[in-house]
Write a structure and sequence with these properties.
The protein has 100 residues and is mainly α. It is built from seven helices and no strands. 64% of the residues lie in helices and 0% in strands.
Length: 100
Protein backbone atom coordinates (compact mmCIF):
# COMPACT_ATOMS: atom_id res chain seq x y z
CA UNK A 1 0.00 0.00 0.00
CA UNK A 2 1.49 3.34 -1.07
CA UNK A 3 1.51 6.53 0.91
CA UNK A 4 -0.33 9.70 -0.02
CA UNK A 5 2.95 10.96 -1.42
CA UNK A 6 2.94 8.12 -3.98
CA UNK A 7 -0.44 9.19 -5.40
CA UNK A 8 1.03 12.03 -7.43
CA UNK A 9 4.82 11.81 -7.73
CA UNK A 10 5.01 14.82 -10.09
CA UNK A 11 2.94 17.58 -8.47
CA UNK A 12 2.13 20.66 -10.51
CA UNK A 13 2.51 24.19 -9.11
CA UNK A 14 -0.92 24.07 -7.46
CA UNK A 15 -0.24 20.61 -6.02
CA UNK A 16 2.52 21.95 -3.80
CA UNK A 17 4.45 20.26 -1.04
CA UNK A 18 2.03 21.86 1.41
CA UNK A 19 -0.81 19.96 -0.26
CA UNK A 20 1.17 16.76 -0.04
CA UNK A 21 1.81 17.41 3.66
CA UNK A 22 -1.91 17.95 4.18
CA UNK A 23 -2.68 14.63 2.45
CA UNK A 24 -0.07 12.86 4.56
CA UNK A 25 -1.08 14.38 7.91
CA UNK A 26 -4.84 14.32 7.30
CA UNK A 27 -6.94 16.74 9.31
CA UNK A 28 -4.49 17.15 12.19
CA UNK A 29 -4.26 20.95 11.95
CA UNK A 30 -2.14 21.35 15.09
CA UNK A 31 0.44 18.95 13.70
CA UNK A 32 0.41 20.66 10.29
CA UNK A 33 0.82 24.13 11.82
CA UNK A 34 3.73 22.99 14.00
CA UNK A 35 5.44 21.18 11.14
CA UNK A 36 4.87 24.11 8.78
CA UNK A 37 6.35 26.59 11.24
CA UNK A 38 9.42 24.38 11.77
CA UNK A 39 9.98 24.04 8.04
CA UNK A 40 9.48 27.63 6.91
CA UNK A 41 9.07 29.91 9.88
CA UNK A 42 6.64 32.80 9.58
CA UNK A 43 5.98 35.56 7.12
CA UNK A 44 4.02 38.74 7.62
CA UNK A 45 0.85 38.81 5.55
CA UNK A 46 1.42 42.47 4.62
CA UNK A 47 4.77 41.63 3.01
CA UNK A 48 3.23 38.91 0.84
CA UNK A 49 0.32 41.16 -0.14
CA UNK A 50 2.74 43.93 -1.11
CA UNK A 51 4.78 41.53 -3.24
CA UNK A 52 1.65 40.15 -4.94
CA UNK A 53 0.19 43.60 -5.55
CA UNK A 54 -2.96 43.15 -3.47
CA UNK A 55 -4.80 40.59 -1.33
CA UNK A 56 -6.86 39.30 -4.26
CA UNK A 57 -3.75 38.52 -6.30
CA UNK A 58 -2.14 36.76 -3.33
CA UNK A 59 -5.30 34.70 -2.86
CA UNK A 60 -5.36 33.70 -6.52
CA UNK A 61 -1.67 32.79 -6.42
CA UNK A 62 -2.26 30.49 -3.44
CA UNK A 63 -5.56 29.09 -4.69
CA UNK A 64 -7.61 30.43 -1.77
CA UNK A 65 -10.41 32.95 -1.54
CA UNK A 66 -9.69 36.62 -0.85
CA UNK A 67 -11.83 36.23 2.28
CA UNK A 68 -9.44 33.55 3.55
CA UNK A 69 -6.50 35.94 3.17
CA UNK A 70 -8.39 38.66 5.03
CA UNK A 71 -9.12 36.27 7.91
CA UNK A 72 -5.44 35.54 8.54
CA UNK A 73 -3.85 37.40 11.41
CA UNK A 74 -0.72 39.50 10.88
CA UNK A 75 1.27 36.35 10.03
CA UNK A 76 0.46 34.02 7.16
CA UNK A 77 -0.39 30.44 8.13
CA UNK A 78 2.85 28.41 8.04
CA UNK A 79 1.67 26.01 5.36
CA UNK A 80 0.71 28.92 3.11
CA UNK A 81 4.26 30.25 3.53
CA UNK A 82 5.51 26.78 2.62
CA UNK A 83 3.27 26.83 -0.46
CA UNK A 84 4.48 30.31 -1.37
CA UNK A 85 8.06 29.09 -1.06
CA UNK A 86 7.32 26.62 -3.87
CA UNK A 87 5.63 29.22 -6.07
CA UNK A 88 7.70 32.35 -5.37
CA UNK A 89 10.97 31.28 -3.68
CA UNK A 90 12.55 34.71 -4.20
CA UNK A 91 9.82 36.37 -2.12
CA UNK A 92 10.49 34.05 0.80
CA UNK A 93 14.26 34.49 0.46
CA UNK A 94 13.85 38.27 0.39
CA UNK A 95 11.64 38.18 3.48
CA UNK A 96 14.20 36.04 5.32
CA UNK A 97 16.97 38.53 4.48
CA UNK A 98 14.87 41.49 5.65
CA UNK A 99 13.68 39.74 8.80
CA UNK A 100 17.14 38.73 10.01
Amino acid sequence: MGSALDDNPMPDRRQSQATLLRKTLGNNNACMQTLGRCIVGGMLKDFAIKKAGNANRLAKLLGVSPQAVRQWGPEMPPLRVYQLRDIKPRWVAEYRRLAS
